[in-house]
């Protein structure tokens, strides 16, 4: 039986933001052990060069210190050793993102890909992780939250954990500090929610438990037994502002804003809380789709370079479709709220000029260089494979139900790929999803897939929705939503979210701002001599009739410039979905079957 690789992680001074790591290798490679830190983390498709935060790297053998040779930006090799070696280093941790590593005097958080070296040629050996608590009195109440299998730990969670290989080692995030733990069972499986950060005094934790239980039970029943895990944990960082998540094999790391959590006084599901529930649903669904069902290009992961696939629309887009659908199917939101969510997605999609430029498959392929590295022109050149992927999944689901009289659906396809690829561990080849869908249903869907995935032609929303008794209205906003009488003017910019300055993040193509010569990074300080800011810019512009030439005072870097913008009408899609009053019994039944609404 191979001897395990033993990792030790300490944080003697959390205030200096350093995780101190050692890695003991009993049987190093004969010609000198090579080791490397991943360049990216599974689930976040961008080269992040984690090794840039490594410092104080050294190696010891039985006869003393071993010389190190750096091979490239993220890998090293030490001299030959007659016996076991121990590698030591520190990781500077100030990235609070769900994909990151963060340590300060309030808490610690890390993903293994950020802190644990990959021992090359020995990645399949078992790994032991030993975590030590900081010793200062101010940290005496710190605890550990993780779902990594325990070997031997203290009540607070510090101690030893053991996993089967390196891939598992980096797939269990850790939260260390003070947190509130919520627990429940879903289909007999223990689940924990660890809430870190300050909660509002009126946060309704009972509501969180109740809704999370409903969502997780729905997903567990959707994929049927046995579940691919024996327990599950949500590691939630509560912030003033924040949103995001990263999936792992039986846990997820989430960020949410404090105001997105429910209050005891809430009578309805607020939009912000609905978004948080969607995030929980999304990352939980990934336990099957991406953590077990993977693109062939990810089996196994190559953590040193990009892993390209045209299928991210499947893994993120279908997940995004089901994360919202699960909310209505599980009963945590009502049908009208679900239609509102779809309407919002349609509005965002139809308001993105990049949908005419980038296909869905290309969006997936170019995630490494475009989706995760947006710039000021991204809205004009790209479309999100999350957003368009979810809409294509929706249309595919309804198309299958329509053409097979409800015999087949996207649910059927998910069951099939789970059986063929998730349970077997085989990677999903490029094009296999299309072939399996046509094989099972007997339908020729080549035109649908060609249109949806490999062209930029508009998607056929209205013609499909009619068969389900849904009225689809989409208009261009040229007036007040309520009165529909006053045409509004618009510059055609999106402002940066931080601060109150009207600083331009994006300029949309063929707009007044582009024609005037404005650029991303410009800060608009005055309109016709009157001071403006982020909160007032849109309303001030809207006061002028379309075609008006307005004088803008702008700071570009440290230079004060003036521009004249000829205002154009505001172009924004407004999409509304609602059940038709004259829908037939058959159409209503199709709708109930899709949403799984019980009479």
Main beta-sheet annotation: 8 strands, mixed
Overall, the morphology is globular
Number of helices: 16
- Average pLDDT taken over every residue: 95
Number of domains: 4
In the CATH hierarchy, the third-tier topology of the largest domain is known as: Immunoglobulin-like
Question: Quick one: CATH class of the largest domain?
Answer: Mainly Beta
Helical/strand content category: alpha+beta
- What is the CATH architecture annotation of the largest domain? Sandwich
| Rg on CA atoms, Å | 26 Å
Percentage of residues assigned to helices:
25-40%
- Strand percentage lies at 25-35%
Give the neighbour order of strands across the main sheet. 5-4-8-2-1-12-15-14
Distance between the termini: 58 Å
Low-confidence stretches: 478-486
Kindly state the number of beta strands: 31
Summarize the structure.
By secondary structure, this protein is α+β, with helices and mostly antiparallel strands. The protein is 27% helix and 27% strand.
Q: What features would you describe in this structure?
A:
The longest helix has 19 residues, at 205-223. The N and C termini lie far apart (58 Å). A hairpin with a 3-residue loop joins strand 20 (243-247) and strand 21 (251-257). Strands 5-4-8-2-1-12-15-14 form an eight-stranded mixed β-sheet. The protein is globular. Helix 3 runs parallel beside helix 4 (271-285) and helix 4 crosses helix 5. It is built from 16 helices and 31 strands. It has four domains: 5-177, Sandwich (Immunoglobulin-like), CATH 2.60.40.3650; 178-287, Neutral Protease Domain 2 (Neutral Protease, domain 2, Orthogonal Bundle); 334-470 and 579-599, Neutral Protease, domain 2; 489-569, Pdz3 Domain (Roll), CATH 2.30.42.10. With 599 residues, the protein is α+β, with helices and mostly antiparallel strands.
